[in-house]
Amino acid sequence: xxxxxxxxxxxxxxxxxxxxxxxxxxxxxxxxxxxxxxxxxxxxxxxxxxxxxxxxxxxxxxxxxxxxxxxxxxxxxxxxxxxxxxxxxxxxxxxxxxxxxxxxxxxxxxxxxxxxx
Length: 117
What we know:
single chain
């Protein structure tokens, strides 16, 4: 059974930081590019960032570029998202998913991030 479980969300003031983690099981993790996506209330899913299977290539949505950093630890089957200088517009449920860019699929269970102004 494939499981992608995000954690690390919470309530933070604007300008603060959070580090999200995603524990992945049931797949050969280092065969897959991985992504973070988010979904705000009343809106559709939004791609946030992707990382290649080996971790050597990353990409970001313009809205988070320079503030968020994606990384992975293939030895631990873990995906991370370091989020700095958070803004209220970053408020959403964050999910990890297989695949890269707008070709992501199979998102897992999310974690709520709330940024207060």
